[in-house]
């Protein structure tokens, strides 16, 4: 595990050992995919692929889509149709992340076990990213399943955290 490149990333994580609940966790994992969760975003992606958004301001379009999602979310709350996430047994903090790994504080993992994980990501739009991981040690797990879009957001977040660490190291070295 010495060859894993980790960066500091304080993130909240909810997780539970898969065990007999593989099917239940897989259903939620699939429901949280970008295809199931984001019909407006999918519509925009198709419009972009057709070239229908070429003359549009992409930032404005993204913000408009996010506003539409918020209105949908509020409508669902009013109608009492909120999407309920599974209550996972454990909640902890991730201390470090790698491109394909997470390090959880407090050593809560059992080596070799598979876990279903939701990570609260501070990206735009803010959301929880579902993962399946396999414990390599009591606090380090390797990501075995992640949605494509979530993987890109994960890599982007990790790169941003690396930049923060580099700036902090340069500032410490110059003082």
Quick recap of the structure?
It contains five helices and six strands. The chain is an alpha+beta fold and 175 residues long. It has a domain of 119 residues: Thrombin, subunit H (Beta Barrel), CATH 2.40.10.
Helix content: 40-55%
Low-confidence sequence ranges: none
Beta content comes to 25-35%
**Total beta strands:** 6
Text of the CATH class of the domain at 7-36 and 86-174: Mainly Beta
End-to-end Cα distance: 32 Å
Chain-wise SSE layout:
Layout: E1 7-17, H1 22-31, H2 34-37, H3 39-49, H4 58-78, E2 90-97, E3 101-104, E4 114-121, E5 127-135, E6 140-145, H5 148-174
Structure description:
The protein has helices at about 20-30, 35, 40-50, 60-80, 150-175, and strands at about 5-15, 90-95, 100-105, 115-120, 125-135, 140-145. A six-stranded antiparallel β-barrel has the order 1-2-3-6-5-4. With about 180 residues, it is α+β, with helices and mostly antiparallel strands. The mean pLDDT is about 85. It is built from five helices and six strands. It has a domain at about 5-35 and about 85-175: Thrombin, subunit H. It starts with 6 loop residues before the first strand and ends with a helix.
């Amino acid at each position: 595990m010495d060859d894993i490149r980790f960066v500091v990333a304080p993130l909240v994580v909810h997780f539970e050992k898969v065990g007999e609940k593989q099917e239940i966790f897989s259903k939620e994992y699939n429901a949280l995919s970008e295809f199931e969760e984001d019909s407006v975003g999918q519509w925009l992606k198709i419009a972009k692929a057709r070239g229908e958004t070429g003359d549009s301001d992409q930032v404005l379009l993204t913000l408009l889509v996010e506003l539409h999602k918020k209105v949908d979310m509020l409508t669902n709350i009013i109608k009492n149709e909120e999407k309920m996430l599974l209550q996972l047994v454990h909640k902890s903090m991730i201390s470090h992340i790698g491109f394909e790994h997470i390090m959880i504080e407090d050593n809560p993992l059992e080596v070799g076990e598979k876990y279903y994980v939701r990570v609260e990501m501070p990206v735009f739009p803010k959301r929880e990213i579902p993962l399946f991981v396999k414990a390599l040690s009591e606090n380090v797990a390797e990501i075995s399943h992640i949605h494509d879009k979530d993987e890109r957001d994960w890599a982007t977040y990790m790169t941003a955290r690396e930049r923060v660490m580099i700036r902090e190291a340069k500032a410490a070295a110059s003082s």
